[in-house]
Design goal:
The chain is an alpha+beta fold and 288 residues long. 33% of the residues lie in helices and 27% in strands. The strands form three sheets. The protein has a five-stranded antiparallel sheet with strand order 11-10-9-12-13. Strands 2-1-3-4 form a four-stranded parallel sheet, sandwiched between helices. Strands 5-8-6-7 form a four-stranded antiparallel sheet, with helices on both faces. Helix 3 links the parallel strand 3 and strand 4.
Amino acid sequence: MGTLGIFVDRQTLSHSRKLGAVMRFRDAAEALGHRSYFIFPVEMRKIAKTSALLIRGRTDPLNATYVAARWASLHGIPVIDDATAIRICSDKVNMYMHLQKAGVPIPETWYLGRRDVEAGEEGIIGQLHFPLVLKEPSTSFSNRVKVAHDRRELMRIATSYLKLSHLIVVQEHVESEEDWRIGILDGEVLFASRYVEIESEEVRPIEEEEVPYYGVETLPLDRVPERALRLAVRAACAIGEGLYSVDIKERGGKLFVIEVNDNPSLENGEEEHYPDVYERIVARLMKA
């Protein structure tokens, strides 16, 4: 029997669905015969007393979650998510370069800096075809992700994002027939779902160019193409071992990885079709 530490923050506990998910992790640990307790950012020293650490908070190299991951690593304690995964997935430039190096299909991608914007149409911008998706590298939850339909929009959005980063990501806009979200744990499929657009007067983009808001529908594996599952495994393994969700778009029979996320949310009814999802994560940590 071991002790599982579940690292949480105020935001995690203030959202009922997130709170429900961490409670299910606690229940899973106890069902497997382990002790568990929550660890808050001000209780970082408690990490050294655990057998394994599960981080359930927004991961970012500037957040306490990254410090927790590093603290666990320094004490030889298994942790999800590990510090390397946090660094890669929190920087879209870094993430896409890992995917490209592994030969994972992604939308056509460029990395623009200030000099590219200053060169205007005389540089690489003059060779681009619209519409294009622009991403500030530290984006999460689709914040700072916008669609540019012409060079004027691109220049305006790029100039804004380059105040936050020395490089930005520019990608071809993929109009998809299906949008898959696949959960991966240590190179094996953990769950599968798809994005569905939500049309509501209460849910609107903050700005006109921002991407629409999507909900998530969990699906059994037999409703997801096998090749999408295989691609998700390839993409996750290009980042590392551990727990990830992989976003995949399908267009004209071709698949494109849109991004790989560490610390994926488990608040969309995944347990309906995958009743052992929490137990698998806990078991992996406690056996590491």
